[in-house]
Design a protein that fits this description.
By secondary structure, the protein is mainly α. It is built from 8 helices and no strands. It comes from Thalassospira marina.
Amino acid sequence: MRRDTASVLISIFQENYDHLVRFLTRRMGGDAQRAADIAQDTYLRLASAPVSDGQIDNPRAYVYRVAGNLAIDWMRREKRHLASSHPDAGQVPEQVEDPKPSPEITVMGRQQLALIDRALDRLPENPRRALLMFRVDGFSHARIAQELGVSESMVAKYIARALQQCRDELWRADQNK
């Protein structure tokens, strides 16, 4: 690859950077930070490519291939690392974690639910009903407006007011701890 070919590859890399990172993010299972790291490694690989006489038929495909290969290399390294750091990964564990939340988390959740319940009790009838129909029943703003006999914009105001009341109640309780 001649130096002018390397500059063409760098140019294509720069033009397609956002698409390349999205491509790598999908490859990496949604890990955008790792994808950005691999994109940087791709740039370094393209910039330090040795000079040769061969021409690249499709430079864009070449850039993506380099990036894809680096992603595969990273996944293989990660898999080896996990296997070496957890040698008995294929065996049945002696203890299995309980998927249920801990008693502390359960109590905290119940306390927060009681606070929200208290905040809802303090609300006027329409904002409380609007929030419950929206969040619990899954009704649209149009359906809630029809049920309450108000406009859709009023429904949005009711819901915003109710949510603010709940947030304020949780915040006050948190400040009193």
